[in-house]
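Contributing new records

If you add data, match the layout below exactly. Sequence lines come first and carry their own label; structure lines follow with theirs. Keep one chain per record. Anything else will be rejected by the validation script.
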Amino acid sequence: MIDNANQKSVTNVQTDETGNYFITLPIGKDYTFTVNRRGYLFFSEVFPLSKNRPDSTYNKDIPLRPIELNASLVLKNIFFETNSAQLQEISLIEINKLLQLMTENPTLRVQINGYTDNVGKPADNLKLSANRAKSVVDYLVSKGIDLKRLMFKGFGETKPVDDNKTEAGRAANRRTEFVITGQ
């Protein structure tokens, strides 16, 4: 569990033999909950507790997926400024989980894919999505991952996963993912 304000670990939890865990957190802050296990893709989710009432309870079942060729994972907590490829600081929490995965699996190769919603010109969105994916690659390279293990591609607005008619749908379509291309 990471405090989003300072990107420092608040607590580390080990599950019991059946996979159960329990965490108590103070309200008034936003947290990122990450789960990882050797041989599996990681899980990450933001818990915006700064807006929740006291005594909120969450029951979270987390099915981890094995690392295998063509497995993909949407990086749900990667954020950019509007019309920009500049990563917001909060994004580093999740990108660092990808960095950890690649460090622990030194033969793993991935492609970073960028997507946008349909606001703006299609050609601009295609370029923006590629630049955003490249920003993630650039960060990983700056942390020691060999560029030969990384590729990036922008898809713009061409592969929506939700309706672009609502803000929630557009937000879902603005995403970054990675796909395992080699082990």
